[in-house]
Amino acid sequence: MTGVQTITLGPEAEAQRLDRWLRHQYPHINQGRIEKMCRKGEIRLDGARVKASTRLGTGQRLRLPPLPAAVAEGRAKPEARVSAADAEMLRDRILYRDEHILALDKPAGLAVQGGSGQVRHLDGMRAALAFERSEGPRLVHRLDKDTSGVMVMARTGAAAAGLSEAFRSRATLKVYWAATAGVPRPASGEIVTGLVKAPGHGPNGAGEKMVSLHPSEVRATTDARRAVSQYEVIAPAARRAAWVALRPVTGRTHQLRVHMAELGCPIVGDGKYGTNRQTNEGDGWGAQLGGEISRKLHLHARSLHLRHPVTGRPLTLTAELPPHMARTWALFGWTPEEAPERPFSED
Predict the structure, then answer these.
(1) How many whole angstroms separate alpha carbon 347 and alpha carbon 339?
(2) What is the radius of gyration, based on Cα positions, of the chain?
(3) CA gap 298, 140 in Å, rounded
(4) pLDDT (tens digit, 9 = 90+) per residue, 6-21?
(5) Which runs of consecutive H residues, i.e. helices, occur in 117-232?
(6) Is the four-CA dihedral 81, 86, 87, 88 of positive or negative sign?
(7) pLDDT by residue (tens digit) across 160-211?
(8) Residues 287, 279: Cα–Cα separation, whole Å
(9) How far apart are CA 192 and CA 195, in angstroms?
């Protein structure tokens, strides 16, 4: 074991999450151990307790507890190499790139970060997007594994700081497209609930499932967070399905999926929150439509409107529908040209 370490952070740590920085420096220390060290107060930043999600800054002093000797001796396992096929796939999906940022159309089914049993993920493939830089771009936000669409990444410390602040202060406009089982009523609105992670680690990833609460219960519920989403029906398919635009005003885990299920209109393919049935059991539809409709999740990060974190100029990033959703749109006769570019107010 090493002794207690105090590290003065350099520019490379600017705006990075504590857990991501630690996993990069000490690859054999897993996420669970990092979170435990934070909960116990063993990790301190400028003398204060921190969370795994805390953003770091240049010049801050990070105190670490004794760590396994393998770390001190430099025997941490090397990062996995990116396969040629994965590298080509990612480069083909670049939507925008300049010296500060890179935007990617993340495919459905690719996890953003590693987790329990998850060895193939975007975070582990960043080297394929380094180009002339010594390291790949940094993650500043995330999408669920089964959600496709626009992801922006930072190529410099200044861009990472600017993007992180923009997402934190809600100075960006995110627009998602979804197909829902059932048609939301009313046709547009705002959903406000609390969200908290379900206890336990049961079948079908129950430990990662979020539970919706009445807003009045948030303060009295440990780890609960307020969640706000806006929605607008763009086109219905009779009373059975709808093309819906969604905006996550807050950014909670599975927020859009939980909120649409709360309306009784789960996102198509979302068996976690809407069941895998096709029928209406009295409290809303199952999440499958049957027939030729894919059973994959129909949720896509269609566009991201923001100001460039360095130049300040307006930037709109747009990703085309993934193949399984494009087929569903064609079956219902929905065309992207029908949708307004900005269906929600930026206020």
Answers:
(1) 20
(2) 21
(3) 24
(4) 988 876 677 788 888 8
(5) 157-168
(6) positive
(7) 889 988 998 889 999 999 999 999 999 999 999 999 988 765 544 445 789 9
(8) 9
(9) 10
Q: Is-contact 309 161, C-beta < 8 A?
A: yes
Q: At what angle do helices 31-39 and 18-25 cross, to 10 degrees?
A: 130
Calpha distance 39→19 (Å, rounded): 13
Let me know if 234 is exposed, middle or buried by CB neighbors in 10 A (0-12, 13-18, 19+).
Answer: middle
Q: Give me the DSSP letters along 178-190.
A: EEEES--SSSEEE
Classify 185 in phi/psi space as left (phi over 0), alpha (psi -120 to 50) or beta.
beta
SS3 176: strand
Residue 95's Cα: distance from chain center in Å?
18
Nearest 5 degrees, angle CA 146-CA 272-CA 283?
A: 130
- The span from the CA of 204 to the CA of 202, in Å, is 7
Specify whether the CB–CB gap between 89 and 36 falls below 8 A: no
DSSP assigned state of 207: G
State the Cα–Cα distance between residues 115 and 128, nearest whole angstrom. 20
CA dist 233 and 259 (Å) reads 14
d(CA 65, CA 101): 34
Q: Which residues pair with 228 in a beta bridge?
A: 192
Assigned token pair, 109? 């089914």
Where helices occur in 263-337 by DSSP H, the ranges are: 271-274, 323-332
Tell me the C-alpha distance between 41 and 65, whole Å. Answer: 10
Q: How far apart are CA 248 and CA 174, in angstroms?
A: 7
Burial class (CB in 10 A: 0-12, 13-18, 19+), 171: middle
**331 CB-contact burial (10 Å; exposed 0-12 / middle 13-18 / buried 19+):** middle
Placement of tokens 């009373």 in the chain: 239
How much is the pLDDT for 326? 97
Q: Would you please indicate which residues are annotated as catalytic (active-site) residues?
A: 144
Beta-ladder partners of 152: 103
What are the C-alpha distances in Å from 286 to residues 97, 179, 212, 265, 275?
40, 13, 18, 8, 5
Torsion of CA 166, 170, 172, 176, to 10 degrees: 130
Which SS3 state, helix, strand or coil, does residue 116 take? coil
